[in-house]
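Blinded run. Sample ID left blank on purpose so nobody reads anything into the name before looking at the predicted structure. Input follows.
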Amino acid sequence: MADRPQDQPKPTRAGGPLPPQPSAIGARDVIAYLRQHPDFLDRHPEALRLVRPPARNTGDDVLDFQHFLLERLRRDVVRLQDEQKSLIATSRGNLASQCRVHKAVVAMLRAASFEHLLQIVTTDLAVLIDVDVVTLGVESSTARMTRLPMQGIHLLPSGTVDDLLGPNRDALLSSSIQADPALFGPAAGLVRSQALLRLSISRSGPVGLMCVGTRKHDTFYPGLGTELLTFLARALEITIARWLERGR
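Blinded prediction complete.
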């Protein structure tokens, strides 16, 4: 004898019965919800991208602008969302860069000696500001150009800084480059973008150059803001000058 409807076994799956299926939501439910929450689209503007605006045929060759306006509104919402995401990402990136530069300046101020300061700049600074290499160049009128005893510091021919930056510029950013070994030493083969920053320690002293390099070809590029980098260079100038004054 066939089972009665109430005696039919319930659908099951491995490990237990199937979960109850949600009831279907109809158009009336959606309309009722929107009536109770008229600010829904204000709180969820992305919902406009999920619906298609109605196309109305008014006849007599009369164009309906409602469809056009809704489409433009949808595009504006998407554009504003993209701009907002880009602005937030840029702000977060700038804040992170600012924090890294501040930590680098604090590390330089805490140097226990002039040699320790140079070691921080040529060794620790790359990690602190998230680049691959940082070196220092010092102009010299010596006929024979040699590397200074500390790794990461190089002697440059007199006039090199002005030749690279120009006489009235303190920073130069370059992307997609083959770096000069005279600036970066053995690490030059790694560098694909660079920031060159003038160091004017004193009126009577030689001109210097802080060279910042990274393996990413687009980390530094013309038009990128240099405020944080020049702030770092100015802080280094002041710190070096104070250590030199102590040594006199």
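Unblinding after everyone has recorded impressions. The domain at 112-247 is CATH 3.30.450.40 (Beta-Lactamase).
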